[in-house]
TrEMBL record:
Pfam families: Trypsin_2
Protein known as: Protease Do-like 14
UniProt superkingdom: Eukaryota
Gene3D superfamilies: 2.40.10.120
């Protein structure tokens, strides 16, 4: 029986199909813990943001969500962010939009936030049938990444990019890395294995690397 040789072209096609299948599974798994949030003041919509679960207590059914502090920001421009004069409303009503067939909404409680780093932690009561993703600080420049979030209709948004470093412009933070693609605010930045590399943020294609996020979470836990 003659041997069947795989050409470089065929090998490339097989490899791409394998990567596509693996990446699809990664995205579908991550999608289960990514939610949409909206905030209101006096009944009027103030802001929207994606957010994702980073912890869940089976006993109390309480989930811990990481999102952008912009969910409680009532006034924001590039200039005010740099000057520190953004206006925040910590007592704003925050709603979590769940992913069930009834489009259930539940209250989300602001637990912690940091205006400079621009992250917020929310508490939400919900049932969970998903694996909480793990953080990874192993980030390499040029590494391919996915940025996942939710739009205002709760549809999944998926962007593909690479880790970039760019010197901050006049109004950007020095702790940002960049995705090379337009992110969903508060969305999850992951590698192809589903490890969380950071959280998507403004301005532009910026995101906060997991090393900064983990340091904030650790300091909040130790020092409140």
């Amino acid at each position: 029986m003659p041997l069947k040789l795989m050409t470089s072209s065929n090998a490339s096609t097989v490899q791409k199909e394998s990567v596509r299948e693996s990446t699809t599974k990664t995205i579908l798994q991550a999608a289960k813990v990514i939610f949409s949030f909206s905030s209101y003041v006096d009944g009027k919509l103030m802001a929207r943001s994606s957010g994702f679960l980073i912890d869940w207590d089976e006993g109390s059914k309480e989930g811990t969500v990481l999102t952008s502090a912009r969910i409680i920001c009532s006034k924001y421009t590039a200039l005010t962010q740099w000057s520190g004069t953004d206006e925040y409303v910590p007592d704003a009503e925050i709603i979590a939009h769940l992913l069930d067939e009834d489009e259930t909404t539940v209250p989300a409680i602001l637990f912690r936030y940091d205006k400079h780093i621009n992250i917020a932690v929310l508490k939400v009561n919900l049932d969970l049938c998903a694996k909480i993703p793990r953080f990874s600080s192993d980030i390499n420049y040029g590494q391919e990444i996915l940025v996942l979030g939710r739009d205002e209709r709760l549809n999944m948004t998926i962007a593909h990019g690479c880790v970039n470093f760019m010197g901050p412009t006049t109004y950007e933070r020095h702790h940002y890395l960049f995705t090379g693609c337009e992110p969903s605010i508060g969305g999850m930045v992951i590698d192809f294995d589903g490890h969380v590399l950071g959280m998507a943020n403004f301005p532009g294609t910026a995101y906060i690397p997991s090393s900064i996020v983990l340091k904030c979470l650790d300091m909040w836990k130790k020092f409140q």
